[in-house]
Structures are given as C-alpha cells and as structure tokens.
Fold:
Amino acid sequence: MPAVSRADIAPTAYAWEIRASGLKVRVGRDKMAVDGLDLSLGTGVHGLLGPNGAGKTTLIRALATVLRPAGGELELLGEAAGGLGEHRALRRRIGYLPQEFGYYKRFTVREFVEYMAWLKEVPKADIPGAVQRAVERVGLADRADARMKTLSGGMVRRVGIAQAIVNDPPILLLDEPTVGLDPAQRLRLRELLQELGTDACVVVSTHLVEDVAAACTDVVLFAEGRLVFQGTPGELAAAGGPEHLGDSPLERGYSALLQNPVRAGGAW
Amino acid sequence: MNPEHTSHTSHASVRLIEEYARGGTGLAVDEVWALEAHLEKCRDCRDRLSAAVTADAPAVAALTEAVWSDLEHRLASAVPAPARRLRARLSAWTTPAMTPWLAMVLAVALLALLLDLAGPGSGQVSLVLLLAPVLPVCGVAASWSRGLDPAYELTAATPRAGLQLVLRRTVSALAVVIPALLAGGWATGVTAVQWLLPCLAFTSLTLALGGVIGVSRAAVALVAAWAAVVVAPTLATSRTAAALQTEGLPVWGLLLALGVGVVIARRGAYTVLGAHR
Structure:
C-alpha cells in the first residue's frame, strides 16, 4: 500500500465524487445519447445497467472527460468538467478502461502500464512501484515481462484494469470490464472491485445483471439516455414480481423497471 | 525534501531505543507510537536501533540472521527487472503506430529523390520539392488517428493528452522527415528555403484543422488540396508552380502563423475523441 500522505486524509470539499444535473451528451450530429441525466455518485461500486444502446458508453466517456457535454452540469471531484479546457489536474485522478481496450502488441505488460502511468503524469520516481502494485493487484505479476501479444483475452482485460488503477484514482470508470473473463477471473474481478470501492467511486458499466448483484453496492439503471432507477441491488430485486420476465429476482426487477413485462414472441 | 536527510532537532533517547530493542514492554503505548513514527523517517536512529538490537537482544538478532540466511540464496537467484529504458523514452515522443508510417514517408522521399536523379527529362520540376510540404503531414496524421493508433481512446483520456502530446509527436515526425528532405534537397540542388516554410505551414494547418474535423481527415483534405492545386498543374505544365517559388514565401509564413495561432487557441480540442477522426 502507498504511504498515507496529508492529502489522503484531508477532508474533501465535495459531497459527491460524481454529480450530474440535466446532463446531455450528443453522439453524432443529432442523437442525444445522454438526455437530461441527474445523478449523484459517492464512494462505492456503482453498477451502470441498461439495455444495449442505452447510452452507457457515452455516459462513461463523458465522465472520463473525452466527450464534452452538450448541456447541463457535470461535476467530478467537486470540479466542473464541462466546457473547453484540458482538465489536467482532474484527469490525473481518474482511471478509465474503455470498452474497446486498444494496446500496443509489442509492449510488455510492464512497459504498457508504465507508459500509461507516464501519460497520467504519475511522478517519475513513483512509476516503478505504482506499476508493480497495479500489476500485482490484477494477478499478473508473473506475466509482467511478457509481451502483450502473448496474453489471452482475459489477461489483456486485466492489463486494462491495471492501467486504470495505476494512478490510485478516486474515480474509476470501467466500461464492460467483465467481457472476455472466464468465471473464475470474473469472481476475482468482483473481489477487486469491492476492495477498490471502499475508498473510491467505481462506476462499472455492464449488461449482465449478475455482475451487479455480486459486486455492486449501488445500481444505476439507465435507458434511452435517462436515469430509470438508482438504489441498492435489494431494492432493484424488490421492484420485480413473479409476473415479470427473468430468471432471478434482480432480472425480474430489471424487467419491471424497464416496463417490459410481456415476453414478445421471438423478438429480442 | 527527502525525509531520509531531514535534519531532526531531536533524536530518540538511548533509553527509548534500548527499551524498544528489548521488546518495548517498559514503554508507554504513545511512546512506542512516536518512536516508530520517528524511526520511519530517521536513518541515524534506525542505525542506532540496529546496534542496540545486536548488543541487547541476541534472540532478535539471531532471528533476523536466520531470516537473512534463508532469503539470501533466493535473492541472489532473483533476476532484476530488465531495464528497457529506450522504449519508454521513445514512447514519450512517438507511438508504435507511427513507425510504419514514418518508414513509408522516408521511402517516398527516397523514391522521389531517385526519380529526380534518374530522370532529367521531367523538366525543371523536382519531385522532392513537390512532395516535401506534404510528407510530414502523413506522419502527424498517423500519430493521432483512430484507425492507426489502437490506444487512441486511452491516450485521449489522460492528462498528458492535448497540445503537449500533439506537439511532441509532431516534433518527432518532423525530426525524422526534415533531415531526410534536407539530404534529398542537397543531392538534387533544391534549397531548403523553397520547401521548409510550406512544410511547416502544412503541418500546422493539419493540426489546426484537425482540432475541428479530426487530424486524419484534415491530413487527407490538405494532401488532396495540395495535389489538386499544386502537384497536378505543375506536372501538367512542367513548370514549378508559383506557390513553390520564393515569391510565395510570405504567404506560407502567414499560413504557418495562422495555423500555430489556431492550434494554441483551441488546444483543448485535442483532449476529446473528436480529434482522433
């Protein structure tokens, strides 16, 4: 663990790590993928759940400050994150794993995470230690000097998580991190998420309801660019009844809230 | 300030250190806490503690000896992580995605040079001179393109993304291309004065336009414009276009200044995904 510094124990000047009000994010010329979103997220693991095309990736990109909001307010760590500007200080404190995690095949795991740490302006002297810690946390210490092209899909995904946590971010954004992981790796990832969620605001987008049940302290249900529901997994389960579609209480709650109770014959 | 070399006004007393070495049972809890906090920061006191342990607590000393002798052969066989500093330093300036493009640019420059040297029949027009202004644009586009750089989205989300990284990668592209063009120009008798300013102007315009429509699209648009406005008429008439003669230089200077101005004014544009198109 890193040594505790004065900055770590200083009281925060904000109530929520992530706060959005009336947030709008445009994709392409005329589609509002996020359309008037009000959301407040604090420490913990937040599962961002929604059907495909609900705008989850767009929202996460806006939270990562790579898409500029078209309207509304977005505050990250108490700092306004809309508008033009480079947000350098803010970005140093964000970890981001995009849905399509691209990497350089010829780099070793260590070189790649080191490169990302450099891009994230981790102080030069801290880079080797931070990289080692991140690689160990995702269970890749024994493959740290293997080239990226020799890794399996699940290992690549874990490198993606390692690069996201290398700067010890108070806001961690993971877009579909469980894709490509086998069941055992998925369990390990959930443990890691819970551990990270004790002192950071972790936003995990997923379309798998069981990921949310196992790892998240909080569920954010999102459809057509709007917030449908925010609450604990228990509250999500309580929203569904036996008449709703699904194999588990959470799935029934999910269907109930999306108002999709009737099984349409043959349609997805 | 390095805590190891901080000059402390007070050090732990001999009594405290000796008590601590014997197990600390005679010390109050707050004294132990304060002592340990001090020891973490003070090398002198750690050395004194080590001496006190050897002198006063043979059992502890024997234990640490045993642990060391157990560990030593394993530490000796552990290989230190290989230092690949060259790649780390290179990746601060270029991406691996740029390498094949820069190689291609150099190949094109070489080809133009060979054609110039071999074919005196192409009139007074030098291919090196015709291609020089747009060659670096390809390298710049490759450094900031969604299709060519797999890690574009990761890069765009980092604090270093933006003007600084754009300029670093542009400088490295220019650092490869300009020496090659200088050598080619020297071989064919084209002076650097004729192409260096258009070359820099094109690079800055690519970046400026790239902030609006994406760097790769900007590069394609500018290369197409160059081909239509200058290259095609020149090859058709076998005369060096006015744009490449010395009278054109003030215009290129103006374009360079315009490009640089726009890039600086819109530096936030390179931190979003839009610049990667």
Q: What stands out?
A: The CA atoms of residues 143 and 229 of chain B lie 26 Å apart. Chain B has 13 helices and no strands.
